[in-house]
Amino acid sequence: MPAAAARAAEGVRISKLLTERGLASRREADEWIAAGYVRVGGVPAGLGQRAQPDAVIEIDERARHLQSQRVTVLLHKPIGYVSGQAEDGHEPAATLVVPGNRWRDDRSGIAFHRGHLRGLAPAGRLDIDSTGLLVLTQDGRIAKLLIGDGSRVEKEYLVRVRHLRPGPLPAAELERLRHGLALDGVALKPARVSWANEDQLRFVLREGRKRQIRRMCELVGLQVLALKRVRIGSVVLGALPPGQWRYLGPHERFA
Predict the structure, then answer these.
(1) What CA–CA distance (Å, rounded) separates 91 from 83?
(2) Does 127 qualify as catalytic in the annotation?
(3) Which entry of 30, 60, 88, 127 is annotated as an active-site residue?
(4) Do 231 and 237 meet the contact criterion of CB atoms below 8 Å apart?
(5) Residues of CATH 3.30.2350.10 domain(s) within the chain?
(6) CA 15, CA 27: separation in Å to the nearest integer?
(7) Where are the CATH 3.30.70.580 domain residues in the chain?
(8) CATH assignment, 69-151+235-247
(9) Burial (CB count within 10 angstroms: exposed 0-12, middle 13-18, buried 19+), residue 139
(10) How are beta strands 57-59 and 38-40 bridged, if at all?
(11) Which of 47, 71, 82, 105 has CA 20 to 30 A from 27's CA?
């Protein structure tokens, strides 16, 4: 039997099945399996074990409890901070997540403790010269929802621009921003783009290529002067002040 056929007969890794079903991140799945919290057909699963795609998988409530304790933070990232690891002398946005910067209007009801900083990672990015809503999470399910392959969660931006060519932006170029541009030889997905006022565009995207909006604008003769993310899915930046953060509330959902 060919190797590929043999692997198909063996099934899919259980950790991958848990991820595909939206039950856990791959790291969480491996942790649960190692702790004995996952059973397949009533038998404890082992790391690396495979099962058929329709296998009945049971998860111990202790794993659910661990998952429920993981937090997600919403930060209004200011200019000058990077989204991920420190680079070129600039601090990561996560360094702003300290008790003194917590928004006083946080209504989540979650009490801060230092364990919430452990493993807190950005689910998406904002360029160093961009501001607005940045999500930092310990929850692999949220990271997968927002930045996993095939993510369909909308991100909304307000973008102040300057015209590099005489006159207003032609209607045909606005249509190209909505659909018809490519970056690095790859076509961009359709976007919703409209004028918020005479010098500010509103972009709604379902993808996040590197410096995408700035590069899109350059292709139609616009220079981005300021870029602010104001919404991810159904979660809005709202009145959260720059440099401050709050917890994602128990009843808030991105999608």
Answers:
(1) 9
(2) yes
(3) 127
(4) yes
(5) 155-232
(6) 8
(7) 69-151+235-247
(8) 3.30.70.580
(9) buried
(10) antiparallel
(11) 82
- Kindly list the distances between the CA atom of residue 93 and the CA atoms of 14, 63, 82, 245, in Å, as whole numbers in the listed order: 34, 29, 6, 10
The pTM of this model reads: 0.77
Burial of 76 (0-12, 13-18, 19+ CB in 10 A): buried
C-alpha 211/C-alpha 130 separation (Å) is 10
Residue scoring higher pLDDT (8 or 66): 66
Does domain 155-232 correspond to CATH entry 3.30.2350.10? yes
Mean pLDDT of 231-247: 98
CA distances from 251 to 108, 241, 247, 254, 255 (A): 9, 22, 11, 10, 12
Q: What CATH number does domain 3-67 carry, 3.10.290.10, 3.90.550.10, 3.40.50.300, 3.40.50.170? A: 3.10.290.10
Helix axes 61-68, 26-35, angle to 10 degrees: 140
Block residue for tokens 């209007």 = 105
Provide φ and ψ at 142, rounded to 5°. -70, -40
34 backbone dihedrals φ, ψ, rounded to 5° = -65, -30
Q: What tens digit of pLDDT does each residue of 1-12 get?
A: 455 455 556 789
159-183 per-position pLDDT tens digit: 999 999 999 999 999 999 999 999 9
